[in-house]
Protein backbone atom coordinates (compact mmCIF):
# COMPACT_ATOMS: atom_id res chain seq x y z
CA UNK A 1 0.00 0.00 0.00
CA UNK A 2 1.10 3.55 -0.67
CA UNK A 3 0.19 6.39 1.72
CA UNK A 4 -0.24 10.14 1.66
CA UNK A 5 0.45 12.45 4.59
CA UNK A 6 -2.33 14.99 5.03
CA UNK A 7 -1.67 18.67 5.85
CA UNK A 8 -2.04 17.89 9.58
CA UNK A 9 0.43 14.98 9.55
CA UNK A 10 -2.19 12.20 9.48
CA UNK A 11 -1.19 9.24 7.29
CA UNK A 12 -3.89 7.90 4.96
CA UNK A 13 -3.87 4.87 2.61
CA UNK A 14 -3.81 6.05 -1.00
CA UNK A 15 -6.29 3.38 -2.08
CA UNK A 16 -9.54 2.95 -0.20
CA UNK A 17 -12.80 1.06 -0.49
CA UNK A 18 -16.19 2.79 -0.94
CA UNK A 19 -19.64 1.49 -0.05
CA UNK A 20 -21.91 3.82 -2.02
CA UNK A 21 -24.85 1.86 -3.45
CA UNK A 22 -23.98 -1.19 -1.35
CA UNK A 23 -27.22 -2.45 0.18
CA UNK A 24 -27.68 -2.89 3.93
CA UNK A 25 -28.09 -6.63 3.30
CA UNK A 26 -24.72 -6.96 1.58
CA UNK A 27 -22.65 -4.26 3.27
CA UNK A 28 -21.21 -6.19 6.23
CA UNK A 29 -20.07 -9.08 4.02
CA UNK A 30 -18.64 -6.70 1.41
CA UNK A 31 -16.61 -4.70 3.96
CA UNK A 32 -15.33 -7.89 5.64
CA UNK A 33 -14.23 -9.16 2.21
CA UNK A 34 -12.53 -5.87 1.42
CA UNK A 35 -10.62 -5.89 4.73
CA UNK A 36 -9.58 -9.50 4.11
CA UNK A 37 -8.29 -8.53 0.67
CA UNK A 38 -6.15 -5.82 2.30
CA UNK A 39 -8.12 -2.56 2.16
CA UNK A 40 -7.75 -0.56 5.36
CA UNK A 41 -9.52 2.66 4.36
CA UNK A 42 -13.33 2.41 4.22
CA UNK A 43 -15.51 5.26 2.95
CA UNK A 44 -19.19 5.51 3.88
CA UNK A 45 -21.66 8.38 4.41
CA UNK A 46 -24.77 9.21 6.39
CA UNK A 47 -26.59 9.34 3.04
CA UNK A 48 -25.58 5.74 2.12
CA UNK A 49 -27.70 4.32 4.96
CA UNK A 50 -25.15 1.59 5.68
CA UNK A 51 -23.01 3.02 8.51
CA UNK A 52 -24.41 0.43 10.95
CA UNK A 53 -23.41 -2.45 8.70
CA UNK A 54 -19.92 -0.96 8.17
CA UNK A 55 -19.73 -0.81 11.99
CA UNK A 56 -20.65 -4.49 12.29
CA UNK A 57 -17.80 -5.36 9.92
CA UNK A 58 -15.37 -3.17 11.90
CA UNK A 59 -16.35 -5.03 15.08
CA UNK A 60 -16.11 -8.47 13.50
CA UNK A 61 -12.93 -8.12 11.47
CA UNK A 62 -9.65 -9.26 12.95
CA UNK A 63 -7.81 -6.03 12.11
CA UNK A 64 -7.19 -3.68 15.08
CA UNK A 65 -9.14 -0.42 14.97
CA UNK A 66 -5.96 1.70 14.81
CA UNK A 67 -4.96 -0.01 11.55
CA UNK A 68 -8.24 0.99 9.89
CA UNK A 69 -8.99 4.40 8.39
CA UNK A 70 -12.71 5.12 8.65
CA UNK A 71 -14.39 7.97 6.78
CA UNK A 72 -17.99 9.13 6.82
CA UNK A 73 -19.76 12.20 5.46
CA UNK A 74 -22.31 14.59 6.91
CA UNK A 75 -25.41 14.89 4.76
CA UNK A 76 -26.83 18.34 3.86
CA UNK A 77 -29.91 17.83 6.01
CA UNK A 78 -27.59 17.67 9.03
CA UNK A 79 -25.81 20.95 8.25
CA UNK A 80 -25.71 23.88 10.61
CA UNK A 81 -23.56 23.82 13.75
CA UNK A 82 -25.84 21.99 16.23
CA UNK A 83 -27.31 19.41 13.85
CA UNK A 84 -23.93 18.61 12.36
CA UNK A 85 -22.34 17.96 15.74
CA UNK A 86 -25.22 15.74 16.84
CA UNK A 87 -25.16 13.81 13.57
CA UNK A 88 -21.43 13.09 13.82
CA UNK A 89 -21.94 11.50 17.25
CA UNK A 90 -24.81 9.44 15.77
CA UNK A 91 -22.53 8.28 12.93
CA UNK A 92 -19.78 7.33 15.40
CA UNK A 93 -22.33 5.32 17.39
CA UNK A 94 -23.63 3.54 14.28
CA UNK A 95 -20.06 2.75 13.22
CA UNK A 96 -19.40 1.36 16.72
CA UNK A 97 -16.10 3.24 17.07
CA UNK A 98 -14.96 6.01 19.39
CA UNK A 99 -13.23 8.26 16.86
CA UNK A 100 -13.36 8.90 13.12
CA UNK A 101 -10.23 9.07 10.98
CA UNK A 102 -11.90 11.47 8.56
CA UNK A 103 -15.21 13.29 8.34
CA UNK A 104 -16.33 15.19 5.25
CA UNK A 105 -19.11 17.61 4.44
CA UNK A 106 -20.81 15.71 1.60
CA UNK A 107 -22.04 18.61 -0.55
CA UNK A 108 -21.30 22.34 -0.89
CA UNK A 109 -24.87 23.54 -0.26
CA UNK A 110 -26.91 24.91 2.66
CA UNK A 111 -25.22 25.94 5.93
CA UNK A 112 -21.85 24.33 5.36
CA UNK A 113 -20.15 27.11 7.33
CA UNK A 114 -22.02 26.19 10.52
CA UNK A 115 -21.38 22.50 9.87
CA UNK A 116 -17.68 23.10 9.25
CA UNK A 117 -17.38 24.97 12.54
CA UNK A 118 -18.76 21.87 14.29
CA UNK A 119 -16.19 19.67 12.50
CA UNK A 120 -13.39 22.04 13.56
CA UNK A 121 -14.46 21.70 17.19
CA UNK A 122 -14.70 17.91 16.99
CA UNK A 123 -11.24 17.94 15.43
CA UNK A 124 -9.92 20.08 18.31
CA UNK A 125 -11.37 17.55 20.77
CA UNK A 126 -9.69 14.63 18.96
CA UNK A 127 -13.00 12.93 18.12
CA UNK A 128 -12.16 13.20 14.43
CA UNK A 129 -8.53 12.92 13.30
CA UNK A 130 -9.02 14.80 10.04
CA UNK A 131 -11.75 16.93 8.47
CA UNK A 132 -12.62 17.84 4.95
CA UNK A 133 -15.18 18.45 2.26
CA UNK A 134 -16.56 16.71 -0.80
CA UNK A 135 -17.78 18.03 -4.13
CA UNK A 136 -16.35 21.45 -3.35
CA UNK A 137 -15.48 22.85 -6.76
CA UNK A 138 -12.59 25.35 -6.88
CA UNK A 139 -14.70 28.40 -6.00
CA UNK A 140 -16.27 26.79 -2.91
CA UNK A 141 -12.98 25.22 -1.82
CA UNK A 142 -11.20 28.57 -1.96
CA UNK A 143 -14.14 30.06 -0.04
CA UNK A 144 -13.88 27.58 2.85
CA UNK A 145 -10.07 27.80 2.90
CA UNK A 146 -9.96 31.59 2.92
CA UNK A 147 -12.86 33.00 4.86
CA UNK A 148 -12.74 32.70 8.60
CA UNK A 149 -11.92 29.02 8.89
CA UNK A 150 -9.36 27.99 11.47
CA UNK A 151 -8.55 24.56 10.04
CA UNK A 152 -7.81 24.14 6.33
CA UNK A 153 -9.64 20.99 5.12
CA UNK A 154 -7.35 17.98 4.87
CA UNK A 155 -9.31 16.39 1.99
CA UNK A 156 -11.61 17.35 -0.87
CA UNK A 157 -13.33 14.27 -2.33
CA UNK A 158 -14.47 14.91 -5.91
CA UNK A 159 -15.38 12.86 -8.99
CA UNK A 160 -12.03 12.06 -10.63
CA UNK A 161 -11.46 9.62 -13.49
CA UNK A 162 -9.74 9.61 -16.89
CA UNK A 163 -12.69 11.38 -18.54
CA UNK A 164 -12.93 14.01 -15.80
CA UNK A 165 -9.38 14.33 -14.55
CA UNK A 166 -9.84 17.44 -12.33
CA UNK A 167 -6.45 18.89 -13.32
CA UNK A 168 -7.31 22.53 -12.53
CA UNK A 169 -9.19 21.55 -9.38
CA UNK A 170 -6.18 19.55 -8.16
CA UNK A 171 -3.90 22.55 -8.81
CA UNK A 172 -6.22 24.74 -6.72
CA UNK A 173 -6.25 22.15 -3.93
CA UNK A 174 -2.44 21.97 -3.94
CA UNK A 175 -2.32 25.73 -3.43
CA UNK A 176 -4.10 25.27 -0.09
CA UNK A 177 -2.41 21.91 0.75
CA UNK A 178 -5.74 20.11 0.46
CA UNK A 179 -5.39 16.47 -0.65
CA UNK A 180 -7.58 15.42 -3.59
CA UNK A 181 -9.53 12.15 -3.21
CA UNK A 182 -11.29 10.51 -6.16
CA UNK A 183 -14.84 9.25 -6.09
CA UNK A 184 -16.05 7.21 -9.07
CA UNK A 185 -12.54 6.46 -10.37
CA UNK A 186 -14.21 4.23 -12.97
CA UNK A 187 -17.03 6.70 -13.55
CA UNK A 188 -19.23 3.81 -12.38
CA UNK A 189 -18.56 2.34 -15.84
CA UNK A 190 -20.29 5.22 -17.65
CA UNK A 191 -19.24 6.26 -21.17
CA UNK A 192 -17.92 2.71 -21.75
CA UNK A 193 -15.03 3.37 -19.37
CA UNK A 194 -14.19 -0.34 -18.97
CA UNK A 195 -13.98 -0.87 -22.74
CA UNK A 196 -12.11 2.33 -23.60
CA UNK A 197 -9.68 1.40 -26.39
CA UNK A 198 -6.74 3.50 -25.18
CA UNK A 199 -7.02 2.19 -21.63
CA UNK A 200 -7.31 -1.38 -22.94
CA UNK A 201 -4.21 -1.04 -25.11
CA UNK A 202 -2.20 0.33 -22.19
CA UNK A 203 -3.56 -2.49 -20.00
CA UNK A 204 -2.43 -5.13 -22.52
CA UNK A 205 1.08 -3.70 -22.43
CA UNK A 206 1.38 -4.10 -18.64
CA UNK A 207 -0.81 -7.22 -18.45
CA UNK A 208 -3.29 -5.30 -16.30
CA UNK A 209 -7.02 -4.59 -16.58
CA UNK A 210 -8.58 -1.23 -17.42
CA UNK A 211 -9.61 -0.84 -13.76
CA UNK A 212 -6.01 -1.42 -12.63
CA UNK A 213 -4.65 1.06 -15.18
CA UNK A 214 -7.08 3.75 -13.99
CA UNK A 215 -6.22 3.24 -10.32
CA UNK A 216 -2.48 3.20 -11.06
CA UNK A 217 -2.83 6.44 -13.06
CA UNK A 218 -4.54 8.03 -10.05
CA UNK A 219 -1.83 6.79 -7.65
CA UNK A 220 0.88 8.30 -9.87
CA UNK A 221 -1.01 11.62 -9.99
CA UNK A 222 -0.99 11.56 -6.18
CA UNK A 223 -4.76 11.20 -6.05
CA UNK A 224 -6.21 9.20 -3.16
CA UNK A 225 -8.75 6.84 -4.75
CA UNK A 226 -11.83 4.93 -3.64
CA UNK A 227 -12.80 1.84 -5.58
CA UNK A 228 -16.08 0.02 -4.99
CA UNK A 229 -17.05 -3.51 -5.90
CA UNK A 230 -19.33 -6.04 -4.28
CA UNK A 231 -17.31 -8.84 -5.92
CA UNK A 232 -14.30 -10.17 -4.02
CA UNK A 233 -12.40 -11.05 -7.21
CA UNK A 234 -12.72 -7.45 -8.41
CA UNK A 235 -11.70 -6.16 -4.97
CA UNK A 236 -8.50 -8.21 -5.34
CA UNK A 237 -7.97 -7.01 -8.91
CA UNK A 238 -8.41 -3.37 -7.89
CA UNK A 239 -5.98 -3.83 -4.99
CA UNK A 240 -3.28 -5.37 -7.18
CA UNK A 241 -1.82 -2.12 -8.51
CA UNK A 242 1.36 -1.65 -6.53
CA UNK A 243 3.69 -3.84 -8.59
CA UNK A 244 3.99 -1.74 -11.74
CA UNK A 245 4.56 1.85 -12.88
CA UNK A 246 3.01 3.56 -15.89
CA UNK A 247 5.53 5.30 -18.12
CA UNK A 248 5.35 9.09 -18.58
CA UNK A 249 4.16 8.47 -22.15
CA UNK A 250 1.29 6.26 -21.00
CA UNK A 251 0.39 8.74 -18.25
CA UNK A 252 0.19 11.41 -20.98
CA UNK A 253 -2.02 9.19 -23.15
CA UNK A 254 -4.46 8.78 -20.28
CA UNK A 255 -4.30 12.50 -19.48
CA UNK A 256 -5.37 13.03 -23.10
CA UNK A 257 -8.76 11.37 -22.44
CA UNK A 258 -9.86 14.23 -20.16
CA UNK A 259 -13.07 15.96 -21.30
CA UNK A 260 -13.09 18.28 -18.30
CA UNK A 261 -16.76 17.41 -17.78
CA UNK A 262 -18.56 15.40 -15.15
CA UNK A 263 -19.96 12.01 -16.15
CA UNK A 264 -22.74 12.62 -13.64
CA UNK A 265 -23.80 16.25 -13.16
CA UNK A 266 -22.44 19.69 -12.50
CA UNK A 267 -22.57 21.18 -9.04
CA UNK A 268 -22.72 24.55 -10.77
CA UNK A 269 -26.10 23.70 -12.37
CA UNK A 270 -29.02 25.33 -10.47
CA UNK A 271 -31.24 22.40 -11.52
CA UNK A 272 -28.98 20.09 -9.55
CA UNK A 273 -29.23 22.31 -6.47
CA UNK A 274 -33.04 22.04 -6.81
CA UNK A 275 -32.69 18.26 -7.21
CA UNK A 276 -30.76 18.04 -3.93
CA UNK A 277 -33.38 20.20 -2.21
CA UNK A 278 -36.21 17.95 -3.46
CA UNK A 279 -34.27 14.83 -2.42
CA UNK A 280 -33.88 16.18 1.12
CA UNK A 281 -37.60 16.95 1.31
CA UNK A 282 -38.46 13.44 0.09
CA UNK A 283 -36.22 11.82 2.70
CA UNK A 284 -37.56 13.85 5.65
N1 LIG B 1 -18.56 12.12 -2.23
C1 LIG B 1 -19.43 11.77 -3.13
O1 LIG B 1 -20.33 12.55 -3.51
C2 LIG B 1 -19.35 10.40 -3.72
C3 LIG B 1 -20.11 10.08 -4.85
C4 LIG B 1 -19.99 8.80 -5.37
C5 LIG B 1 -19.11 7.89 -4.79
N2 LIG B 1 -18.40 8.22 -3.68
C6 LIG B 1 -17.45 7.26 -3.03
O2 LIG B 1 -16.55 6.76 -4.01
C7 LIG B 1 -16.66 5.33 -4.08
C8 LIG B 1 -16.38 4.86 -5.49
O3 LIG B 1 -17.27 5.45 -6.41
P1 LIG B 1 -18.50 4.69 -7.08
O4 LIG B 1 -18.85 3.50 -6.26
O5 LIG B 1 -19.57 5.68 -7.32
O6 LIG B 1 -17.99 4.27 -8.51
P2 LIG B 1 -16.74 3.49 -9.15
O7 LIG B 1 -15.85 2.99 -8.08
O8 LIG B 1 -16.22 4.36 -10.22
O9 LIG B 1 -17.44 2.29 -9.88
C9 LIG B 1 -18.06 1.24 -9.22
C10 LIG B 1 -18.65 0.32 -10.30
O10 LIG B 1 -17.59 -0.31 -11.03
C11 LIG B 1 -17.74 -1.72 -10.97
N3 LIG B 1 -16.40 -2.30 -10.84
C12 LIG B 1 -15.55 -2.16 -9.79
N4 LIG B 1 -14.38 -2.77 -10.03
C13 LIG B 1 -14.49 -3.32 -11.26
C14 LIG B 1 -13.60 -4.07 -12.06
N5 LIG B 1 -12.37 -4.36 -11.64
N6 LIG B 1 -14.03 -4.47 -13.29
C15 LIG B 1 -15.27 -4.15 -13.72
N7 LIG B 1 -16.16 -3.44 -13.00
C16 LIG B 1 -15.77 -3.02 -11.78
C17 LIG B 1 -18.62 -1.99 -9.77
O11 LIG B 1 -19.41 -3.15 -9.98
P3 LIG B 1 -19.60 -4.31 -8.86
O12 LIG B 1 -19.81 -3.65 -7.53
O13 LIG B 1 -20.80 -5.04 -9.36
O14 LIG B 1 -18.34 -5.12 -8.94
C18 LIG B 1 -19.50 -0.74 -9.72
O15 LIG B 1 -20.60 -0.90 -10.60
C19 LIG B 1 -18.08 5.08 -3.57
O16 LIG B 1 -18.32 3.75 -3.21
C20 LIG B 1 -18.18 6.07 -2.43
O17 LIG B 1 -17.52 5.59 -1.29
C21 LIG B 1 -18.51 9.47 -3.15
Sum up the structure in keywords.
284 residues; alpha/beta; TIM Barrel; two-stranded antiparallel sheet; binds NADP nicotinamide-adenine-dinucleotide phosphate
Question: Can you describe this structure?
Answer:
This protein has 11 helices and 10 strands. By secondary structure, it is α/β, with parallel strands linked by helices. It has one domain: NADP-dependent oxidoreductase domain (TIM Barrel). The strands form 2 sheets. It has an 8-stranded parallel β-barrel with strand order 3-4-5-6-7-8-9-10, surrounded by 5 helices. It has a two-stranded antiparallel sheet with strand order 1-2. Strand 6, helix 4 and strand 7 form a beta-alpha-beta unit. It is globular, with a radius of gyration of 18 Å. 45% of the residues are buried. Bound molecules: NADP nicotinamide-adenine-dinucleotide phosphate. NADP nicotinamide-adenine-dinucleotide phosphate binds next to strand 10 and helix 9.
- Could you describe the largest sheet, including whether it forms a barrel? 8 strands, parallel, barrel
CATH architecture: Alpha-Beta Barrel
Number of domains: 1
Morphology:
globular
Q: Looking across the biggest beta sheet, what order are the strands in?
A: 3-4-5-6-7-8-9-10
The CATH superfamily label reads NADP-dependent oxidoreductase domain
Distinct bound molecules: NADP nicotinamide-adenine-dinucleotide phosphate
Tally the helices: 11
Distance between the termini: 40 Å
Which residues form runs of ≥5 with pLDDT under 50? none
Q: According to CATH, what is the topology?
A: TIM Barrel
Strand content: 5-15%
Mean pLDDT rating: 96
The ordered H/E elements are EEEHEHEHEHEHEHEHHEHHH
Backbone structural class: alpha/beta
**In which range does the helix fraction lie?**
40-55%
CA-based gyration radius: 18 Å
Q: Which CATH class is shown?
A: Alpha Beta
Overall number of strands: 10
Amino acid sequence: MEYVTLNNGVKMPKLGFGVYQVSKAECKRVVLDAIEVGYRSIDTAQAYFNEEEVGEAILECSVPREELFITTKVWIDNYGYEKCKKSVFESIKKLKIDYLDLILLHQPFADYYGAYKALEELYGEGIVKAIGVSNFYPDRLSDICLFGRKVIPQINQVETNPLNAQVKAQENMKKYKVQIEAWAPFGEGRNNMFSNQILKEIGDKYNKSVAQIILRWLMQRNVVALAKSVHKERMKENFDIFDFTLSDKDMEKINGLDTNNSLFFSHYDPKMVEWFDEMIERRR
